[in-house]
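Pasting as-is:
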Amino acid sequence: MTERNQDEWFLARHRTPVIAILVLLTLYAVSSTVHYLRSYDYTDDAVSAYRSAQSKGLAVGLLSQSQSEGLIDNGKAIRSSIERLEKPGNAAFTPVFDRLMAEVKSAPKYVGSASTGGACFLFPVIPVEGESIDKIVGFTRFCFKDPNDKQTYSAVSVAISNR
């Protein structure tokens, strides 16, 4: 049997498994694309929360990425400093943040307990100080568990989009 005849014989005999493998590979490629299209993006929700706070005359305390990273990484988040940075309008972001945290499976779920004097402070994060809220990149939340310990906190920083 010539080499060409062997190839034709192989394809004729194994056509169904070869087609099945090609179909499975195609489905895998499509499912990867579908997963990407289902990724989360809370930018519009965050901007709407900001505009809602502004329309009510409530100021919003924003953090730049470098401020957020500095407070988290260098342990500079003293409760009194964080309390001064937060404004009344920051509460408008809580529902957006809660929905986002429910979607981000790896995010820690710690919340300061109000009954023990604990408190959490939520901030929208923009790339650079002075940027528009339309450029928002994420949220940072600081939670202080004990009212007598003004320096021990947990912090969560999460992007509002995974695109």
